[in-house]
Amino acid sequence: MTDTNAPGAVGLRERKKARLRESLVESGLRLFLEQGYHGTTTEEIAASVGVSQRTFFRYFATKEELVLEAVTGIDAHFLASLRARPADEPALTALREATRDHWSRVDPRSRRFLSGAATLLRDNPEVVDALMSHCRSRQERIAAAVAERTGVDRATDPRPDVLTAVFVAVLGTAHEAWSASGSTDTDDLLATVLERLDLVPEAVGDDWGTAGP
């Protein structure tokens, strides 16, 4: 008889739970894309991976929690990419290159989900509060990572927070421009983000914005 309390058994059980959690997130994103957020029930998400709705609720209390799980997982990849950038790389360059690096690691389904995030927010106001809270937390984590890699104290040096605010704003304007273009290619979204990040030094420099002769 297998000892279910043995370290190996506990490890196997936790891995199975982690795989099921991941499967629920992946299936939820797929169904949201195919059927819409309101058109997808927790029962359907559970059934798509062969478990009961009761099991779904052991992992996520609501569909909103599943959405946050997906976004948080993608953010974790970005922060890992940022911390892996060379220590002597300028902060803005590190943010740009981490964006490019982590995008290459995000699976196509998650890319499509992120590209449709604006529609999700517009059509489902109940998700807004949860995601806005997450976005504030996300900006805080990025600023902390920027401060860590640059060796400055945010309590006395606001530059990490200022740069992160600019970075997050650029992501938003890039997404808006990509959506307005009518493109559905997420590689175009990445290109738009990188192009706009490249404009930041010029856009915030002292020699821009003055009237011509």
Q: What kind of sheet is the major sheet? A: none
Q: Could you name the CATH topology of the largest domain?
A: Tetracycline Repressor, domain 2
CATH architecture of the largest domain: Orthogonal Bundle
Distance between the termini: 87 Å
Query: Count the strands?
Result: 0
CATH secondary-structure class of the largest domain: Mainly Alpha
Tally of discrete structural domains: 2
Poorly predicted spans: none
Please identify which CATH superfamily of the largest domain we are dealing with.
Answer: Tetracycline Repressor, domain 2
What is the CA-atom radius of gyration, in angstroms? Answer: 20 Å
Q: In terms of structural class, how would the helical and strand content be classed?
A: mainly alpha
Strand content of the residues, in percent?
Answer: under 5%
Shape: globular
Number of helices: 10
Helix content: over 70%
Mean pLDDT: 83
Order of helices and strands: HHHHHHHHHH
Quick tags:
single chain; 10 helices; mainly alpha
Brief summary:
With 213 residues, the chain is mainly α. It has helices at 7-35, 42-48, 53-59, 63-84, 91-103, 108-115, 117-123, 125-150, 159-181, 186-204.
Structure description:
The protein is mainly alpha-helical. The protein has 2 domains: 1-61, Homeodomain-like (Arc Repressor Mutant, subunit A, Orthogonal Bundle); 63-204, Tetracycline Repressor, domain 2. The protein contains 10 helices and no strands. The chain has helices at 7-35, 42-48, 53-59, 63-84, 91-103, 108-115, 117-123, 125-150, 159-181, 186-204. Helix 2 packs across helix 3 (53-59) and helix 5 (91-103) runs antiparallel to helix 10 (186-204). The radius of gyration is 20 Å and the shape is globular. It starts with 6 loop residues before the first helix and ends in a 9-residue tail after the last helix. 20% of the residues are buried.
